[in-house]
C-alpha cells in the first residue's frame, strides 16, 4: 500500500479514471481516497467493508464549504465471493461514479472547497496489497478546480443585535432594488429564480437559492458574456465581527471579473475575489474585522467579453452597523 501511494503521490485531478485491484489480506475496510487535499482536510473515501459486505462512499470530510450538506456514508451490499476488490472509478468534476467488481455502482456528488483537493490515496485499516492500479486523465468539459473557502473562526454574525443587512442583500425582491449599476452587465433581467444550469445542476450546492432569487450574470437574451458593467452596493459602516460572506460563480479573471470590498473614502479595494469558470456557487468569506467602523461598499465588476465572461452573485451577508 505504501509503495502504491508513493507512485500516485503526484497524480492529481478532478477528471480521472481509476482502475485498481486490491488484495485486502487482513484488512476489514479498504479502498481509496479521492478529491483529497494535500493535508487531508478534504477527502472522499470509497471503500469496501468486509464486516458487513458493503461498498460505500464516505463524504464526511468531502468539503469544508459551509454551504455543502454533509451526508455522511452511503452504500450498499455486494458479495465479492472472496475475490479481490476491483475498483473502477470515474471522477468527473463534482460527480463520482464507482464500481465494485462490476457488480455494484455508487454515484455521488462532492463539492470541494479547496483548490488542491485533487489527490488520491490508497487507504485501509490494515496493510493491503495493491495488485494493479492505472489512472487516466479524462477531458475536462470546462473550468478549473473549485476555489478555496477560507472559513475563519466565528464567522457567523447572528449573535449581534446592533447590525442589519445590506438593502436587498440576497436579491429577494427579484430585481436590483437597492443596488447601483453602471453599464449593462447587471440589469434587473439578470435576477432570476432559475435553480439549475446546464439543465440539471444546482447553482447552489445547498440546493437552495437564498431569498429565492440570485443574480445570474449570464443571460443569453440580454446579451450573454458580451455585456460589461459594475454593480455596487450602498455605502455602509461595517459592524458586527467584520466578517462578510457571499456566493459567487462564473468566470475566473481576477482583473476583469471580480467582487471587491471597497473603502468609500479613497476607492481602495480591500478584498477581491473571482470565480472558477464554473456556474456552481461557492461561498467566500472575508475577515474584514480590521475595517469595522469604516465606510465601505461592495463592488461587482464584469469587464470581460469572452467565453465565461460573466459573474453570478448572491447572498451578500454583510454586518452593517445600525445608525445610532
Ligand atoms: Ca438570493
Ligand atoms: Ca461580460
Plain-language structure description:
Residues 9-137 form the Glycosyl hydrolase family 32 C-terminal domain. The structure is a single chain. The chain has 324 residues and is mostly beta strands. 2% of the residues lie in helices and 42% in strands. It is built from 1 helix and 25 strands. It has one helix at 2-7; strands at residues 15-23, 29-36, 44-49, 54-58, 73-77, 85-92, 95-100, 104-109, 119-124, 129-137, 163-164, 180-183, 191-192, 196-197, 201-202, 214-216, 229-232, 236-237, 243-250, 257-263, 269-273, 278-287, 295-302, 311-317, 320-321. The strands form 6 sheets. Strands 12, 17, 18, 20, 21 and 23 form a 6-stranded antiparallel beta sheet that branches. Strands 8-7-6-1-10 form a 5-stranded antiparallel beta sheet, with no helix packed on it. A hairpin with a 7-residue loop joins strand 2 and strand 3 (44-49). The longest helix is centred in the N-terminal third of the chain and has 6 residues, at 2-7. It is elongated and about 70 Å long. The mean pLDDT is 91. The protein binds calcium ion (CA) (2 copies). The site of one calcium ion has 9 residues, from loops.
User: What is the CATH class of the largest domain?
Assistant: Mainly Beta
Small molecules (ligands, ions, cofactors) in the structure: calcium ion
Mean pLDDT figure: 91
Rg calculated over all Cα atoms: 22 Å
Largest sheet: 6 strands, antiparallel
Please, how many helices? 1
Strands, count: 25
Classify the beta-strand content into a percent band. 35-45%
CATH architecture of the largest domain: Sandwich
Q: Give the helix proportion (percent range).
A: under 10%
Coarse morphology: elongated
The low-confidence runs, each spanning 5 or more residues with pLDDT under 50, are none
Helix and strand pattern: HEEEEEEEEEEEEEEEEEEEEEEEEE
Q: Using the coordinates shown, work out and report the CATH topology of the largest domain.
A: Jelly Rolls
- First-last Cα distance: 64 Å
Counting helices, strands and paired strands, the structural category is mainly beta
InterPro entries: ConA-like_dom_sf (IPR013320), GH32_Enzymes (IPR051214), Glyco_hydro_32_C (IPR013189)
Protein name: GH32 C-terminal domain-containing protein
Pfam families: Glyco_hydro_32C (PF08244)
Amino acid at each position: 500500500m505504501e509503495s502504491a501511494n508513493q507512485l500516485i503521490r503526484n497524480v492529481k485531478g478532478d477528471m480521472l479514471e481509476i482502475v485498481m485491484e486490491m488484495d485486502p489480506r487482513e484488512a476489514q475496510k479498504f479502498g481509496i481516497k479521492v478529491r483529497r487535499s494535500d493535508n487531508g482536510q478534504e477527502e472522499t473515501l470509497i471503500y469496501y467493508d468486509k464486516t458487513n459486505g458493503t461498498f460505500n462512499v464516505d463524504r464526511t470530510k468531502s468539503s469544508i464549504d459551509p454551504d455543502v450538506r454533509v451526508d455522511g456514508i452511503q452504500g450498499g451490499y455486494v458479495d465479492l465471493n472472496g475475490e479481490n476488490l476491483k475498483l473502477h472509478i470515474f471522477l468527473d468534476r463534482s460527480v463520482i461514479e464507482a464500481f465494485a467488481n462490476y457488480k455494484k455502482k455508487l454515484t455521488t456528488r462532492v463539492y470541494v472547497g479547496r483548490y488542491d483537493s485533487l489527490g488520491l490515496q490508497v487507504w485501509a485499516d490494515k496493510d493491503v496489497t495493491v495488485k494493479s492500479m492505472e489512472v487516466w486523465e479524462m477531458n475536462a468539459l470546462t473550468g478549473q478546480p473549485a476555489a478555496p473557502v477560507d472559513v475563519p473562526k466565528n464567522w457567523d454574525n447572528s449573535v449581534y443585535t446592533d447590525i442589519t443587512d445590506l438593502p436587498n442583500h440576497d436579491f429577494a425582491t427579484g430585481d436590483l432594488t437597492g443596488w447601483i449599476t453602471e453599464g449593462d452587465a447587471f440589469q434587473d433581467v439578470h435576477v432570476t429564480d432559475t435553480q439549475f444550469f446546464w439543465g440539471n445542476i444546482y447553482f447552489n450546492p445547498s440546493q437552495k437559492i437564498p431569498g429565492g432569487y440570485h443574480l445570474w450574470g449570464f443571460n443569453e437574451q440580454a446579451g450573454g458574456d458580451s455585456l460589461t458593467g459594475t454593480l455596487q452596493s450602498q455605502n455602509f459602516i461595517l459592524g458586527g465581527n467584520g466578517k462578510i460572506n457571499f456566493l459567487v460563480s462564473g468566470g475566473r479573471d481576477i482583473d476583469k471579473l471580480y467582487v471587491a470590498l471597497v473603502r468609500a473614502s479613497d476607492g481602495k479595494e480591500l478584498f477581491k475575489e473571482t470565480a472558477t469558470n464554473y456556474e456552481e456557487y461557492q461561498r467566500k468569506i472575508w475577515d474584514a474585522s480590521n475595517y469595522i467602523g469604516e465606510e465601505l461598499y461592495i463592488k461587482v465588476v464584469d469587464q470581460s467579453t469572452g467565453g465565461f465572461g460573466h459573474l453570478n452573485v448572491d447572498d451578500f451577508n454583510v454586518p452593517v452597523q445600525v445608525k445610532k
